[in-house]
Amino acid sequence: MSYYFLDWAIEWEIEEYVTLNKPQQKQFEVMLDKFLIWHKQVELPKYSSQLHELLTQLQQGTLTPSQWVIQVQQAKGHWFRIFHFLLPDLIPLIASLDDEQVKGIMKQLRKEEQELSDEYAGKTNAQLLDESNERLFEQADDWLGSVSDAQKSLIEARNSQRLATLDMWLEYRHEWLRQFEQALSQRDNSQLLTQSLTLLMTQPDDLKSASYQQNIAQNSENFGSLIVELSHTLSDKQRKRFNKKLNALIVDLNEISLD
Predict the structure, then answer these.
(1) CA 215 – CA 211 distance, rounded (Å)
(2) Do residues 158 and 233 make contact, with C-beta atoms less than 8 angstroms apart?
(3) What is the pLDDT of residue 122?
């Protein structure tokens, strides 16, 4: 149901950052309509296909941690394709922003960055781990129903092996924001704006340090190990709930893409 209100949701989100003038608003609406048609017809079938592949691997017991990493990379690819599609229309819209609009965008982005920093400031590694465990328990409950104590212990054991990335993540976000502000300041130069936004929107991993990327890769494989190990502990009731929930999502994606 939410997908059918995606145009409204996107416009509402944009309004938090910038108020467009009438020509910009018309330009944005044309771009949004074009994007939504493409996304529904081209991208949703790809999401469905990947989820079907993942479901098959889980049902057949062939999913491995390295295959999970591939699944994660494919999911990131879905996100980056969105910006590849949008950039040709997005760049002239950004180039048309005036100084006050840019100031408003940066003010909101800095506010969000500060809120993130405040959220994690002063928390110990033990506190961060407890919060992470709770999030994983909630996700497991959502997909499996009530998880057993043994399954919670498995989640805690795997999650305790997760490599720390918080500081690197915050540093990466700060650098991304710095380069985004620089790109906006050069928006009168189409070539520089295109180069900068292509990097920021479709190749953001290039801004991450080597150690950060290594930790992300290791954590992704570790989470894949958790998924595989959990799949071997599922009761018939849990497995039925998971299969039903994932199948329902696949069906929804297929139906929306054909509308």
Answers:
(1) 6
(2) no
(3) 86
pLDDT band at 209 (very low <50, low <70, confident <90, very high): very high
Compute the distance between CA of residue 229 and CA of residue 232 in angstroms, rounded to an integer: 5
Tokens standing for residue 126: 């033990």
DSSP assignments along 48-74, one per residue: HHHHHHHHHHHHHT---HHHHHHHHHH
State the pTM of this model.
Answer: 0.91
End-to-end CA distance of the chain: 13
| CB distance 154 to 226 below 8 Å | yes
> What is the spatial distance between Cα 255 and Cα 3, in angstroms, rounded to a whole number?
11
Residue 41 is classified by DSSP as I
Q: Each residue of 214-246: pLDDT tens digit?
A: 999 999 999 999 999 999 999 999 999 999 999
From the list 257, 238, 258, the residue with the least C-alpha distance to 246 is 238
Q: How far apart are CA 202 and CA 166, in angstroms?
A: 22
189's tokens: 């130069």
Among 72, 7, 12, smallest CA distance to 39 is for 7
Rounded CA-CA distance 177/83 in Å is 17
pLDDT in tens, 141-175: 999 998 999 999 999 999 999 999 999 999 999 99
Spatial CB neighbours of 68, under 8 Å, sequence gap ≥ 6: 220, 221, 223, 224, 227, 228
